[in-house]
Amino acid sequence: MRFFVGITTTLVGVLCFFVLEGCTVRRVAFNDPITAQELEFVRLDKTTLHEVVERLGAPEDIVLDTDQLVAEFQWSTARSASLNLGYLFRLISPVSLPFTLSGTGINIERVQFVCDKNLVVHSYFFGRTDQHALIEFWPF
Q1: Which residues pair with 26 in a beta bridge?
Q2: Cα–Cα nearest to 86, from 135, 17, 19
Q3: pLDDT averaged per 10 residues in sequence order, the chain, 140 residues
Q4: Neighbouring-strand partners of residue 132
Q5: How many angstroms separate the CA atoms of 86 and 65, rounded?
C-alpha cells in the first residue's frame, strides 16, 4: 500500500511540474499613473496647457472643438496569465502541441483637461475605461 502511495505522489509531482512549466504570468505598465496630488499645481482659469505639458509630458490625444480643446493623458496596466496544457504531452510524445488557456486584463485610466481657445485650463477630470477581460482557448 505504501508503495502505491509513493508512486502516486511521485506521478502527481511530475504532472504538476509539467503543468507549471507551461505557466506564464506577465504584467506590463504603460506610462506613469497621474494622481490628484500631482495636479495640485493646476489653478482653474489660470494654468495653461503649456504648464501642464511641462509637468506631465505630451498628451496622448488632443481634440479641438469649436470653442474648446480637450487634452487627454492616459496610462494603463495589462496583466496576462496562460497555462499551456500541451506540456503534458511531453510525457508521451517528443513534440508538445500547444493547447493554451490564457486570460488577459487591460485597465486604461485617463485624465482630461478642458481648455479654451487661449489654452487656459477650465476643468479637468479623471476617468477609467471598462476593464477588458479576455479568455482564449488556443488552438481552437
Answers
A1: 80
A2: 19
A3: 67 61 74 89 94 93 91 87 70 69 78 94 86 51
A4: 106
A5: 53
